[in-house]
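User: Okay, second chain of the day. Same drill as before: sequence in, structure tokens out.
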Amino acid sequence: MEPLSLPPLAALRAFEAAARHGSFTKAGEELGMTQAAVSYQIRALEDRVGAPLFARRPRQVSLTETGRRFAPTVRDAFERIAAAYAEARGVEEGKFTISTAQTFASHWLVDNLDTFQARHPALIVRLEATQRVADFQSEDVDVAIRGGHGPWPGLERHLLLEANFTPMLSPSLAASIGGIKTPADLLRLPLLDPHDPWWRLWFEPLGLSVEASLKVPSAKLGAQGLVARAAMAGRGVAMLTPALYRSELAHGLLIQPFERICTDGLGYWLVYPEGRRNAPKIRAFRDWILKAVAEQMGAPEESSLRSGDDETKARHQTA
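Assistant: Same drill. Structure tokens below.
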């Protein structure tokens, strides 16, 4: 077998760090090198590649087209090496960062994460609840929980929970019109985020239209957790994922007047780079959360686990 043709490891490390930080100086700080040493290593790598990897400007560097194509592959290679090394050592230690959709965080993860932490005390677990999609190439994030359809190129994904939906409201709001007896009664009340396509999907098969509600001025709340809070405050009817509001339903803060539950294929997914699938800490978290969610909420439907070839854009913000 022919030996592999590889550039110097030091040059690759300097390039990967500089590409991630967008700075030779910050790369040097991370690697314990001077800015000049980082620049030297990258020049050496560019000589071997035969093309510039960075465009150099006063106090600023940016990846060239060649650099942008090269950086993800180098990053992935280092992640695979790190994962293989950790697996060989059997190590579960260090910082473990989870970037998660806000609604899933507040309605399930924060109530259960201590169980995972107790089982893995060597890990320093850090939670980032945000609507922003984490960038694994540039951010210090181990795993993410995303709302959407997927697939996401280069990422492993596991369906945690199908984001199905049904109307919910506060008992006091329902009582204000003498109770909710038919779906048409809901249209006598304000609909929260009425332009959300979930409203049409739920009502139109019943022969009901939400057009009148669309003409009423309404603030767009976006995140499902905010819509739920407005519903509990009696501001209107919310279209929510019932599995995430079991406590609110049990305590009478919300009611679900009808059993009819719809879905458009959206879900909450655990995702992480393909090259990290065997990292001990990621494997430990994956095994724990898939089992814990299934035990508490039921396993996702088999049909929901199918992966398409093309990414479908989410029509509803599940974060």
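Residues 286 and 295 are 14 Å apart (CA to CA).

User: Thanks, on to the next one.
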